[in-house]
Design goal:
- 31% of the residues lie in helices and 21% in strands.
- It has helices at 157-163, 169-186, 275-317, 325-366, 429-432, 436-457, 479-484, 494-517, 546-558, 583-588, 622-634; strands at residues 3-5, 10-12, 17-35, 47-48, 54-55, 58-59, 65-73, 83-89, 107-111, 117-122, 131-140, 143-153, 391-398, 407-412, 419-422, 463-468, 532-540, 564-570, 590-592, 597-602, 607-612.
- The longest helix has 43 residues, at 275-317.
- It is globular.
């Protein structure tokens, strides 16, 4: 099974003779550096590049190309080598693009000699960078692993080599680029293009637009192939996995759509290299479609009301039409035109909403556990995963035009920012009907459900949850986590418990940061858990002194980059005594609520989306069953 890595993820390599295949949208330079146990590149003799393409156990391409195959034999590497870093750079002086943000995201695959993919990584998010450390193979406790790096350098190849501690990096980078330029000068130019009537290309061969303004679907990914020369004589370096083509055929049980009617929805009807990624993209496509069609409806209603007001103003401005039959007819005609416009707008909205509802009915049952609601049957077949998913569902979103059409609210993993579950009284009707104690209880229930989801979607021992509950007010709500044994330790109570947990996590952040800066990520003390950490804080700021508040802000600022995440269950009014000191803390967290609330603003179209927190079906034991499996998978390793 292929491991699709995100930046920072790793995967164990089952064999030592490998190929590393690179596919980019433009010719790139591919090379590799060898590092010792501390990650240091000892000299130019530890670098394979187009000017010196062979080292013991390693061979790279001799020139720039859009597709590369690097051969690696880990058993043949010198014993002092503990790390192999694959580097990509754009050639200079070739007239091509000068930054990776201007080309398609490079794709890297680690394969066996039979071509079977072991792990893949797509280098997304690059912009001004012209060189990037794509991935690294590293040895840990006698076993080799691959880690997705994706570290880009706007300073180019010389900045990347200098960052690896190589003396004379600028001179080496210049010699590499010169070797690439010489190789490109010796290459054979493509044949001249043929006339249009002899080729198969042309304006009519592009993707067919989707009908009815819907998103164009995509075929499942095709295997990586070498670029072929088409009849036109030029090579297309477009990666086959980035093509958008005809939709997959409907399931055998689904009858074909009638001519002229909308296409029947299909789960996974979006671009992506895996079913999970296609579903993720489809969900956000549904979000965009709902936002767009609702904005069009609201704009049409505003226009109709504005035009009616103008017509009525003109009618009232003429004294002859203020009274009598003429004025009544003018007002009736203005209102009739208004009603006609709004009715047509509503008809178009209802048509689009019906299609989105039908798509939601197909997509929801097909979602994996990380994307699914708690009432989805997929949780009853839950097994502890081997890899983390690309995102996690933390609730639903809807608009007032169709409250029963819920779009999953997905956040990417690993978490990029913490969560703040607001236990205070908001302006929503649901909050107005509840007292403060009930709101705080629901907020903590929401925290437990999200924490349980995070524990469930991570592999065993790769995610830990710590709880600070200074007054012990959430003991009943935390019971499922405590009984299952899924917590890293008992909930911390009192000022001493608060201080102990914060000191432990602050130390972990400091040590991991130092290890990363020293390029010694594999040399952490044995008592430091390298897995992701989540800290749930209840009843803040009760039990916190000034030092603890400072540590909490430090964790919120520095923690996410090294795998320490924060979940606050708090009422901001309770911490008002700290004044603006805590403003950066609240702004750094994603605010959600324990009851439905329309506080999530959409700057794209100006909508206020209503957030619906996750809920366990009444009487269901799914939470206890999932946590029991999580805890059982962890015990043998402790």
């Amino acid at each position: 099974m292929t491991a699709e890595l995100a930046r920072g993820q790793n995967h164990t390599l089952p064999q030592t003779r490998l190929e590393i295949r690179v596919s980019a949208g433009t010719p790139v330079v591919a090379g590799a550096t060898l590092g010792d146990e501390s990650g240091t590149v000892r000299g130019t003799e530890w670098i394979a590049h187009p000017g010196s393409p062979q080292l013991p156990g390693l061979e790279v391409s001799k020139q720039a190309a859009a597709d590369h195959r690097l051969a690696v034999d880990l058993d043949a590497l010198p014993p002092s080598v503990h790390r192999v870093t694959v580097l990509l750079a754009l050639p200079t002086g070739s007239g091509g693009p000068s930054r990776f943000g201007a080309v398609a995201a490079p794709f890297v695959a680690v394969t066996g000699l039979d071509g079977g993919e072991i792990a893949t990584f797509t280098l997304t998010g690059l912009d001004t960078e012209s060189a990037v450390a794509a991935l690294e193979l590293y040895r840990r406790q006698g076993a080799w692993k691959v880690r997705a790096v994706g570290q880009g350098y706007a300073g180019g190849l010389d900045a990347m080599l200098a960052d690896q501690g190589l003396p004379g990096a600028a001179e080496l980078a210049r010699s590499i680029q010169e070797a690439v330029t010489r190789a490109m000068a010796r290459s054979v130019a493509p044949p001249p293009p043929r006339t249009p009537d002899t080729g198969r290309g042309g304006p009519g061969t592009g993707p067919v637009p989707a009908q009815g303004g819907q998103r164009p679907p995509a075929q499942p990914p095709e295997p990586l192939t070498e670029p072929a020369t088409p009849p036109g004589g030029t090579i297309s370096y477009a990666h086959p996995r980035r093509q958008t083509s005809a939709p997959p055929p409907p399931p055998p049980t689904a009858p074909p759509a009638e001519p002229g009617s909308p296409a029947r929805p299909v789960a996974g009807d979006a671009t992506g290299w895996s079913m999970d990624e296609r579903l993720y993209n489809q969900i956000w496509g549904m979000f965009e479609d709902l936002a767009r069609t609702t904005a069009a409806y609201r704009s049409a209603v505003d226009f109709a009301e504005s035009r009616m007001e103008q017509e009525l103003d003109r009618t009232l401005s003429d004294p002859r039409s203020r009274i009598g039959g003429a004025g009544d007819r003018a007002r009736a005609e203005a209102r009739a035109r208004h009603d006609e416009l709004t009715a047509r707008a509503r008809e178009a909205l209802d048509r689009d909403l019906a299609q989105l509802a039908a798509e939601s009915d197909v997509v929801e049952p097909a979602l994996p556990a990380a994307f699914a609601r708690w009432d989805n049957p997929v949780w009853h077949a839950y097994r502890v995963p081997m890899e983390i998913p690309m995102a996690l569902r933390i609730g639903d979103l809807h608009l007032p035009e169709k409250p029963d059409l819920n779009i999953p609210l997905l956040v990417r993993l690993p978490l990029e920012r913490g969560l703040w579950i607001d236990s205070g009284r908001t302006s929503s009707e649901a909050a107005a009907l509840l007292d403060g104690d009930r709101l705080r209880g629901l907020a903590m229930e929401n925290a437990v459900l999200i924490a349980a989801r995070l524990l469930a979607v991570y592999p065993a021992d790769e995610f830990s949850v710590h709880v600070i509950d200074p007054a012990g007010t959430a003991a009943g709500t935390l019971a499922p986590l405590v009984r299952s044994g899924a917590l890293a330790g008992p909930p911390a109570a009192g000022a001493a418990g608060v201080s102990s947990v914060l000191a432990h996590l602050t130390r972990r952040v400091d040590l991991v940061q130092m290890a990363i800066r020293a390029r010694a990520a594999d040399s952490l003390p044995p008592d430091v858990d390298p897995g992701e950490q989540l800290l749930i804080v209840n009843d803040f700021p009760h039990g916190f002194d000034d030092r603890a508040v400072t540590q909490l802000r430090y964790l919120a600022d520095e923690g996410p980059a090294v795998g320490v995440h924060l979940m606050m269950v708090a009422d901001r009014e309770d911490a008002a005594g700290y004044g603006p000191v805590l403003d950066p803390l609240w702004r750094s967290l994603l605010r959600i609520t324990p009851v439905p609330d329309d506080h999530l603003a959409d700057p794209w179209v100006g909508h206020a989306w209503t957030y619906e927190p996750p809920r366990i079906p009444p009487g269901s034991q799914v939470l206890e069953q999932v946590l029991a499996q999580v805890a059982a998978a962890r015990r043998p390793r402790r």
